[in-house]
Amino acid sequence: MKVYKKESVQHINATLDECWAFFSSPENLQKITPKSMGFEITDFDGQSMYAGQIIQYKISPLLGLKLNWVTEITQVKDRAYFIDEQRFGPYSFWHHKHFFEATLNGVKMTDVVHYALPFGFLGRIVNALIVKNKLSEIFDYRFQKVNELFNSKS
C-alpha cells in the first residue's frame, strides 16, 4: 500500500484560545470546506472535540456521488493538537494531524494528512490523476477561508 502525505502550514492572526475554539468544533468544518464537496454532518453528538468522538458525514467529492465518511477523533491535547482518523469511507487509510502553536503575533497551524487509496496500482493512478489534485484544491480553499475568517480583520 502506497501512503501519501499532504502538509499545510498557515499563520492565523488570532489567539490560541480563539483558534482552538474554532477548529476543535466539528461543526465549523463545513465553513472551511468547498460547497462543491456537498459536505454534510449526518451524526455528531454536539460536544466539543474529545478523544473517542465519532463524527459521520456525507461528502460528494466527484461527479455528485454521495459517500458516507466516518471519522474518529483519536487524540486531543487541549490547545496543542488533535488527530482524526477515518473509520469508514473512501480511503483505505486516513490519518489527519492538526497542530496549533502560539507565536509572537498569532498561531501557527500545521495540518499533516497521511492517506492511502484502495485498489493497489489502480489507486495510485487515481491518486495521480484525481485525488492528489482534489486534496490540494480542498487545502487551498481552507487556506483562503481561514484567511478570510481570521486574517482579514481590520
From TrEMBL:
CDD domains: SRPBCC_3
InterPro entries registered for this protein in UniProt: START-like_dom_sf
Name of this chain's protein: Ligand-binding SRPBCC domain-containing protein
